[in-house]
Amino acid sequence: MVVSLILNAVYFISEEHVIKEYYIEPLKLIGIEGIIGLIMAILLMVPLNFVSCDNLHIDITICDDDKLENTFDYFSTLFSNSQIALLVIG
């Protein structure tokens, strides 16, 4: 949780710096934020699929199938329910 707070703080500070430094139209800025978020998610989700919870000595209740992240389970759940898929895509 602490890492999440630190990453959010860095993200907001860098975003504030870009807004003060350059003029970017609001919709373009939202698009850039979405692209950066997608890249960050991909860069974090792939390696976390291979991190075992046993090696980290953390509580097993937050681990799914002994991994910190289970991307395949996420996508299978997402596409098995059309309402969830619509909420995520839309």
Account of the protein in words:
With 90 residues, this protein is mainly alpha-helical. It has two domains: 1-48; 52-90, no CATH class. It is 72% helix and 0% strand. It has helices at 2-21, 26-48, 53-56, 71-80, 82-89. Helix 4 (71-80) packs across helix 5. The longest helix has 23 residues, at 26-48.
Topology of this structure?
Elements: H1 2-21, H2 26-48, H3 53-56, H4 71-80, H5 82-89
Helix pairs in contact: 4-5
Question: What's the short story on this structure?
Answer:
The chain is flat.
Quaternary structure type: single chain
Rg for CA atoms: 17 Å
The percentage helix is over 70%
By DSSP (H or I, 4+ residues per run), the number of helices equals: 5
DSSP E strands, number: 0
Question: End-to-end distance, in Å?
Answer: 28 Å
Low-pLDDT windows of residues: none
- Calculate the mean pLDDT score and round it: 81
Which secondary-structure class do the elements indicate?
mainly alpha
Number of domains: 2
Global geometry:
flat
DSSP strand content: under 5%
Order of helical and strand elements: HHHHH
Largest sheet: none
